[in-house]
Amino acid sequence: MKCKFIFVTGGVVSSLGKGVTSSALGRCLIEHGLHVSMLKLDPYINVDPGTMNPYQHGEVFVTEDGAETDLDLGHYERFLGQDMRKINNVTTGQIYEEVITQERQGHYLGKTVQVIPHITNAIKDRIRKVGQGKEVVITEVGGTVGDIESLPFLEAIRQMKIDHGIENVFYVHVTLIPYLKSSDELKTKPTQHSVGKLREIGIEPNVLVCRTEKSLDLDLREKVALFCNVPVQNIIAAPDVSTIYEVPLTFVDQALDKIVLSTLKLKPKKKTKRWDSWRSMVQKIKFPKNTVQIAIAGKYMELKDSYKSLIEALIHGGIAHETLVQIEYIDVTLPDLWERLKNVSGILVPGGFGDRGIEAKISVVSYARENKIPFLGICLGMQCAVIDYARNVCNLTGAHSTEFNSKTNYPVIDFLPEQKHVKKMGGTMRLGVFPCKIQKNSVAYHAYKQSEIGERHRHRYELNNRYRKILEAQGLQISGEYTPKKLAEIVEIKNHPWFVGVQFHPELKSRPLRPHPLFREFVKAALHYEK
Ligand code: GLN
Which position among 379, 384, 394, 436 bears the catalytic label? Predict the structure, then answer.
């Protein structure tokens, strides 16, 4: 099978939603029955984002096979309904690591190793690898055209057209048409410059996706088309929409899918009910029957990107009940915490690292437990639930995780022996999917309706089995377990409407067309609580 390559670049400013654009285009092609895969090229030198802090990078998205990747891979999975893997995210760091390793092995036979062709060849190999067995690969180039860092990636994608031919390569440029209030005008100049920059490198975009606050009229489209050397019907408007899941629909309305199919000579497969389930999902988001308030009590609240998948999973949980989930972003380190918690019908304590705000998070769990407010604790949130239970129900005063107090008398959360001597920080956590066995008489089983599940992990610490008997004797149910190592995966309590802590990250597997069972049930419990 010959693979076609679509490349998505961005211009003018960052944060234009290139990830959503790429994913939405992916969805369009999936609806035509094509086999699509996605690739994100990240220009930074880090081998992966696993060692970066959330302020630098936003969420780290973990794949089934345990790769720590860019958050755009989360969009790819949610829009395409397909699992991504390690190969679907490439960084400059990985490319250089590979080329330098080969150089040390003498692979280049005395040649001078250079950006062109050696780095660009390595990049092209990685793109083609994703294309194996697929009909289309959509590759999103991180950064903005004009950055020094992304030049080798742009050079590589330029060469792809020469290598594979005009019928097999398609370039999408995502750009901004800003609106100037003072003159009440949309301005096209930044887009002209950005496309100019791209053409300087040798890339002629087939399509411009124009992010804009106002609608683009024909005059304006004609102007952009003329100055940027793109057919007018290939100027696609991407106005702000109320839900990102509407973006693919705005693309088909402008026939973006048809333009791609005809340029790349791709034949759509017969498919009945094209878009039916997607459209009905979007309707449920846009016209909800209920509203419910749920708090995320964490510490990166200024930066919503840190909780990207979590926020999406809550939205998906809402879709299952035609409910708008209004998220209260509560920073546990701020004094208004308790005041703000009063108004919510569900409390979620998310994953995290480092001791800032840890005592407040533990108190938030106590509050949810004692006041019988639906509670979902994820990773660190689950660990906080165990600490609260140990301290306040089992009377293990001062119980803690050794991550925060290595001298605690009751280390209820601790390193696994194999984590004790880890020196290398990158890629050494418990990562990726692990099987979990669920007890039948549990809230978790009621949600999943099966006893064998697999969920994705990213952590170093675990519930310490030395304390398991005490915790269980006092009523903490360990309802899910990774049996080969007897590791606690799910904890819950009785005499509470809905209280679940999970050591894994369920949000990573939730999708708009398939809301995650735990989020679906959590939102349901919050709805009941509200009533
Ligand atoms: N810091 C905790 C650990 O490493 C929790 C990590 C997380 O929440 N992802 O175990």
Answer: 379
